[in-house]
Amino acid sequence: MRAVTWHGTHDVRVETLADPSLVNPRDAIVRVSATAICGSDLHLYDGLVPSMKPGDVLGHEFMGEVVEVGREVRTVSRGDRVVVPFPISCGYCQYCRTDRFALCDNSNPNAWMLEAQAGYGPAGIFGYSHMYGGYAGGQAEYVRVPFADVGPLVVPEELSDEQVLFLSDVLPTGYQAAELCGIQPGDIVAVWGCGPVGQFAIRSAFLLGAARVFAIDRFAERLALAEQAGAETLDYEHTDDLVEALKQLTAGRGPDHCIDAVGMEAHGHSVDARMDRVKQAMRLEMDRANVLRQAIQACGKGGTVSVAGVYAGPIDKFPYGAAFAKGLQLRGGQCHVHRYMRPLLELVARGAIDPVAIITHRVGLEDAPAAYATFKHKTDGCVKVVMRP
User: Fold this and answer.
1) Gap between the Cα atoms of 189 and 207, Å rounded
2) Mean pLDDT per segment of 10 residues, for the chain of length 389 residues?
3) Taking each helix axis from N to C terminus, what angle separates 290-298 and 271-281, rounded to the nearest 10 degrees?
């Protein structure tokens, strides 16, 4: 099969590999019909996530046709068209039984790698380094899906691949980010980052009752998509003091909830942002966290800061004093995708959310190296890339 493989910083290749095979009786093999490049894939592309090995197959947003199933799989069959959630979850541990699938105790054979840093290890993830299990990803013609009796969701034929593909990650991730805010009717929400997750966080915030949503980014194409969803936009490159601007736009109270849909590679021109870039380049700091600091500073009293962007390690200059003084709630983590797939599928089916609206680039799998570069540098108006093997 052909697959997109990692070979180092800014070095992805399309190579011919052996087709995957069943390893466990709960496995399935899926022939991939559509896959996507996620913003968190860029953290691998930029060499910021440890434990990657040359030849690792990338990709955790994918869907396709089931072509083989293990003897213990009863929920999907050969020929089923399925979308696959990015966390790999056993379905039986304490966390899976309580719908916290991204914290599965049994799907990550290398959990010990993260236990050293975090105390405990999370679930395995497709195509996302060996500390998340070393599983081959879905930017390939075929992929082995462990615990196939738990994860894959059969999707109706009347919906296109592009309508359902993002149920694998970015749509549930954006929705969870908004849901974690506990939005009440009339609330004001600010979203940093108008990439795919931010776009779905904006749309989800309105669905959950937000009266106003501020969308913060620097790329015109992304801000235009946010405006189409009803958001009021702020270009942070042309805003002298973003925290003060949000106060003025909210009669001094600040947003009720702030969503960080950026994560560890935030851009900015403030002193702390410049310090982060230098320290990250020198390997003195893992994450550039100026967006998270801004969100905490901007959030109104008693509000919630919801973090959907990926962070990898300790961060400097964390303003916990401000969070404590204002009584903020800090919430976040990997998305428990399985929990949201069915209800979000219903929203897509009735037209309440249009995932296709964020797709700007459609390419073949062989075009992956150029597509990664385009997505990273946001050239050619790139917001979301879908690839077809």
Assistant:
1) 12
2) 98 98 98 97 93 97 98 97 98 98 97 88 96 97 98 97 98 98 97 97 98 97 97 94 96 97 80 68 73 96 96 85 96 97 98 97 98 96 97
3) 150
